[in-house]
Amino acid sequence: MLKNLDPALNADVLYALSSMGHGDTLALVDTNFPADSVARHTVLGELLRIDNVSSARAMQAILSVLPLDTPLQPSVGRMEVMGEPQTIPAIQREVQTEIDLAEGQPAPMYGIERFAFYEKAKEAYCVIATGETRFYGCFLLTKGVIPPTDV
């Protein structure tokens, strides 16, 4: 255990989050997503896990250390419901709450069509699988920056 770190964040996930640079993306995905096969195409090349937690809980843990690129652009994409791109399932509403809390203001997600999401996930720095069993618990995050404190 380390002080001030969310216990859901394991060493492999922390290493990946720290290694990412500004503009890099990560895919946070549910249990139904083809996580292992997609992860093999990413920069990291292997699947990471935050097991036994929902996508919302994993998002909370990740955003406790990862800055989003929200001042410049919408920084969290959500997998759209097939045939209903405007529908926001409960899991996505829960994740939106975690994003808004972490950012201290509303930071709306943008939609990504299901098959386009798969392709974007292959281009990500890494894929992190959660224990989320509800459908459409899949998100793409863009890393931002932490400004210097002496400016």
Automatic annotation (TrEMBL):
It catalyses: beta-D-ribopyranose = beta-D-ribofuranose; alpha-L-fucose = beta-L-fucose. InterPro entries: RbsD-like_sf, RbsD/FucU_mutarotase, RbsD_FucU. Gene3D superfamilies: RbsD-like domain (3.40.1650.10). GO terms for biological process: fucose metabolic process. GO terms for molecular function: D-ribose pyranase activity; fucose binding; L-fucose mutarotase activity. The keyword Disulfide bond does not apply. It comes from the Bacteria. Pfam families: RbsD_FucU. Keywords: Isomerase. This is Fucose-binding protein. The lineage of its organism: Bacteria, Pseudomonadati, Pseudomonadota, Alphaproteobacteria, Hyphomicrobiales.
